[in-house]
Predict the 3D structure of the following.
Amino acid sequence: METQETIHISDLHFDHKLWMNELRFFEMQLIVFEEKLEEIVTSNSESAVLAKVEAFQNRIIRQKEVIDEIKHKLRLREKDLDKMKNSNSVKKGDLLFTEYESEKDEMNTFIRLYQEMRDDFKAFVAEI
């Protein structure tokens, strides 16, 4: 007999809290990156450097937008979970389970892309 995978509602809440904390941390790092870009602009007027600064500014703006989008989705999902307090778990195939898997994939993709941007940023700062 095949057992169906389940996720407890409390585990979903935990993951959402963890992701929200990670997103807040990334937001704080982006502020530090912006401050560093401002410092670079005031001390360097080379057109190639300024072009890279502008590219990073655009990437940072996009990262902030994605963070806001993910946080909004997580807040909405938390409202749904609060309505399901009496449920202990959801089964694979249920809409909530599918949405959770989608959220997890989206968060993992965001983290990977964020880390790539952060590594590119560090390399840029090291080369100037």
Summary: The first strand starts at residue 6 and ends at 8. The mean pLDDT is 91. The two ends are 62 Å apart (CA to CA). The chain has one domain: 6-127.
